[in-house]
Amino acid sequence: MQPTRASLTRFNRIRHTLTVISALRRVRQPFTTAQGLKQSLELLLQLGRTTGLDRTGLAPLQRMVEDEEAFQVVWAIVQYLGGLVCQEHGTAETLTLTARDGSQTSVPTAAFFRWLPLVVQVMSLLRQIRA
Hints:
By secondary structure, the chain is α+β, with helices and mostly antiparallel strands. The protein has helices spanning 5-26, 34-50, 55-66, 68-81, 109-130; strands spanning 85-90, 94-99, 104-108. It has one domain. Helix 1 packs antiparallel against helix 2, helix 2 packs antiparallel against helix 3 (55-66) and helix 4 crosses helix 5 (109-130). The longest helix is centred in the first third of the chain and has 22 residues, at 5-26.
């Protein structure tokens, strides 16, 4: 029995999906670092494309990866949720987070709360994959 073109395509998709999941598990930098977060988000985007998610569904994740301003907001949220923020100060326009190492990040308050639910889901997914 010869494999069909469709079955080979499905097999290749499964193999590529497992390869991307394996790469996600091998990321050594924690996703609370900028480098680890960027690498994890890029691999998660690749995983979404491999599994056939549509562009609309992947658009927020792609924006996290490609838009530096969006990435900075996402990284600030990850640091906040990861317990790396020791002080926060905000106005209606800007939220300033101070990390335990003394570094500060300022992000638009509205963007912080707009991205927060999605970042929580992404962090949960990354924790499950990397566990």
